[in-house]
Each structure stands twice: as structure tokens, then as C-alpha cells.
Amino acid sequence: MSDTNVRLVRFCTRCVQSNQRVSPSEVTKDSRTNVRHTLEIDDGVCDACKVVAKKDSIDWAAREAALVELLDRFRDPSKPYDVLIPGSGGKDSVYQAHILKTKYGMRPLTITWAPHMYTDVGWENFQAWITNGGFDNLLVTPDGSVHRKLTRLAYENLLHPFQPFVFGQRHQAARLAKRFGISLVFYGEHHAEYGAPKGEDESSVVLPKYLTGEVTPDTRISGVTVSELEKQGISQRDLDIYMPMSEADYTASGIETHFLGYFLRWDPQEIFYYAQKHTAFRPNDRRTEGTYSKYNSIDDKLDGFHYWCAFLKFGVGRCTHEASQEVRHGHIDRDEALALVDLYDGELPERYLPEVLEYMGLEREEFLRIADSFRAPHLWEKRADGWWLMHRAAGVPKRFDFLK
Prior knowledge:
CATH class of the domain at 57-263: Alpha Beta
Number of strands: 12
Structural class: mainly alpha
Largest sheet: 3 strands, parallel
């Protein structure tokens, strides 16, 4: 998508998502400008809506048979584990691990890349997943001092405080699978559910380009090169835990990584009910700030800021994501989604803000001024009374000014 087309903001006529939405691979890029907005909208309908609509024509019995065939190929009673499942103990990883173990007879090793700061409900759900589900788990926690520095740099340089977390989370599965001699890795929902490049929804395989990479002194994390970070006291060895294995090593290891959502029909709301039933997964005690739900991404006190920062950069907030997903699966209609987005999208997550500011070593005013500097000029207009988002699914500009 060209830069000119990116600036022509368009909204899907079926859900409430815009073409400003970026894919997970794009959101990790170390630049304010070098990001492609990868949700295509053709004939008024976005790719994500088209992918979900195709589910009604899929032969799910045949897909499940293909899943069993795949699992049988990797099932090995002589090994302690025959599948590795990365997850937090949220609803999706609960579903993946539980159904592969109980229905399909697999022996999973679950792994977790630790949140910056666990929420109370996040920690309780993590423990319930392991205890009630009966899983072995490796909790990988990076050096807290390094992680804190990288998080602040990512916020200052990219307005993406989650980037170091995403790096570590994405790259642990293959590394640990290799270390434990596990050749099968499963992720949950297919990334095409959110609008992956055309054609990728036709395969269950997570392509190596999303999981691997070459690490050099010029590799960037948190907007800073590895060599520059070494001058700031963060060594290459400190960063190894965040970095991917090379594609050559990944290929040589024989690891296969798949999306379970390709084989089994994925409905986030139904998966929440499944997790609640089988491991006593608990939703939050209140509505999540920035949206209307209580059970999505509730593990980390920085979760809400990940979505809020994306709202400032791309005009797409947490409620837009969740409402669009629920429209696609038939739980609400577009008018309801528009009303929810109008109420909640772009809300500043105040509940954990004092702890997040302390974690990053920032004062509130400095935190907000940094955020303002990343507002995309083709989306935002500065007026006498503050910042206005000019392109919204409802069609009416709205003021979002957080500096008081």
C-alpha cells in the first residue's frame, strides 16, 4: 500500500475497522514512518471480514481430520512433550493447551513470556491454567532492569512500549522448542483473522519470516541499534533473550509452527466460555479501559497502553479491534459497534497509569507530551481546544486531548 493510499483513510462497511490498522509484523518496526498499513479494504469490505465470512463454507470436519493427521505425525510417547504451546494463561492459550491435551491426547509443554507487571487477575488466571489444566510450564522472565530500560526507550522512540515484550514473546517458542527437542509448536487464532497478507489464510503454517531473523550490530530494538545499546550499558548478551534464531537454524531444527485456528473454528467469545468452564478462567472485575470487554488481554498492567499508543499513531483503538471482531462473528451488529467505539475508543488507561509511570521513570506530563508527538498528521488536527481525531468510523471528528 503506497504512502498516498495510506493517507486516504477508509473504513470497512461491514465492521468498524479502518485501513490504518497494521499487522503484528509491522507494529514491531523501528520507525515512525516506515510502517505499511496492511489491512486491505476492497469493495468496501476489509480482508479480515472476508476471512471470517469464509468460515461458513469451510469443511471443518476435513480440517479436523487434517489436524489429527498432523498431530499423529508428531505424537511421540518416548518423549516428555510432543507439542509446545506459548501463552499467558489467557483464554486463547487455555483453549489451545486444554483441547490439544484432553481431546487429542497430546502432551504439551506450555511456555510463558512474563508480563512487565502482572495484574492480579492475570496472575490468578496463569496459576489456574497450570493448576486446573494440569500443564508443565516454563515462565521466562527477562532481566528486569534491562527490560525496564528497553520499555522506556521503546516508548520514547516509537510510542510502542510493548515492542521489547513482543520481541521476547515472539521468539521464545522456537528457541525453547529447539532446546527441548520439540518439533511442533502451536499458536492460537490465525493472523488472517485480523487481515493478513492475501492467501496466507489458506495455510496453517506460521511462515518463518514472522519467527526468524538475522541479528547484526545494526539490528534495532526500542528504536536503538544493538551497537548503540552497548554504549548505554546493555550488552549483546543482555539482548539475546529478545532475539530470533536465524531462518537457517529454524529450518535445520525441523520445527513446524502452526495456527490451531486454521483447523478448529475460532470464535473469541466461545473460547472465553471454554476457558471459564475448564480452568475457571476469570474475567476482570470491571470493564477494561479503552473498550467494553472484561476478558481480552488482561494479564499485564501495560496491556492498555499498547492499544492506547496505537490509537494515537493509527487512529485505531482497542474498542475498534474488539467490536470489529464481534461484528465478524455475529455477536453484535455494526450500529452497536459504532456506538461502543464512540463511547470507549481512545480512553486513557488511568487504572494502572501511576504504576506504569513509575516503571518507566516518567512524570505524567512528560508521558503525555511524548504521546502527543506521535499523532499522525493525516489523522489528527490541533485546534484551540486540543487534539481532534478527524477520521472515525462514525464519520464525525472527536476531541481526544489528554493533557490537562
